Amino acid sequence: NAGVTQTPKFQVLKTGQSMTLQCAQDMNHEYMSWYRQDPGMGLRLIHYSVGAGITDQGEVPNGYNVSRSTTEDFPLRLLSAAPSQTSVYFCASSYLTGATGELFFGEGSRLTVL
Amino acid sequence: DQQVKQNSPSLSVQEGRISILNCDYTNSMFDYFLWYKKYPAEGPTFLISISSIKDKNEDGRFTVFLNKSAKHLSLHIVPSQPGDSAVYFCASPFGNEKLTFGTGTRLTIIP
């Protein structure tokens, strides 16, 4: 009963490096999204997808790239890491189109950019 | 610009008493609200929701109240238990496909 699985759980990068945060769900949810959590800022939406092949920007999309080739997977790519991207990242999915459906979250990926 | 605001970063409540967490919103078009609970090192989990056609929704020890004229909602937990210690986020849909969250309130239940 995996739900939403994120890897890695922890990552340290140097400024300018690139990496991909993986997210997979086994609930056959059409809607998937990425949030970042920062102290005093709450959860902010980075990108979301309403189905395979469809992605769109959230509140803070700059510096991040996403794709959705399958229903199950929604990777988040950092193109050139910056210290401002130090954060905890959460992937979430929903059986409804995002906003009114209950979101199921992964356990988070803590990223530090030096 | 934060459209959903939680102005109290933290709250401490004695075990057995009532916990009241508050949330204000600015967009009068918001018509559905959710509360999520988050423990350390875990993802948030859905707790309770309310539609704007209601002013109250109850689920066990948790009740959410909505005051549309004041653009205010509150989450009541009674009686409070040590396991309720967590960060609570209120949220509302922004458009059909985006969920916007408040900044969270850290609730500590004192035994």
Distance between the termini of chain A: 36 Å
Low-confidence stretches of chain B: none
Helix content of chain B: under 10%
The total count of helices of chain A amounts to: 0
Mean pLDDT of chain B: 94
Structural class per helix/strand content of chain B? mainly beta
What class, by secondary structure content of chain A? mainly beta
Give your account of this protein's structure:
The complex is a heterodimer of chains A (about 110) and B (about 110). The model of chain A has no long low-confidence stretch (mean pLDDT about 95). Chain A has strands spanning about 5, 10-15, 20-25, 30-40, 40-50, 55, 65, 75-80, 85-95, 105, 110-114. In chain A, about 0% of the residues lie in helices and about 50% in strands. By secondary structure, chain A is mostly beta strands. In chain A, strand 5 (about 40-50) and strand 6 (about 55) form a beta hairpin. Chain A is built from no helices and eleven strands. In chain A, the strands form two sheets. In chain A, strands 2, 4, 5, 6, 9, 10 and 11 form a seven-stranded mixed beta sheet that branches. A four-stranded antiparallel beta sheet of chain A has the order 1-3-8-7, with no helix packed on it. By secondary structure, chain B is mainly beta. Helix content of chain B is about 0%, strand content about 55%. Chain B is built from no helices and eleven strands. In chain B, the strands form two sheets. In chain B, strands 2, 4, 5, 9, 10 and 11 form a six-stranded mixed beta sheet that branches. A five-stranded antiparallel beta sheet of chain B has the order 1-3-8-7-6, with no helix packed on it. The N and C termini of chain B lie far apart (about 35 Å). The mean pLDDT of chain B is about 95.
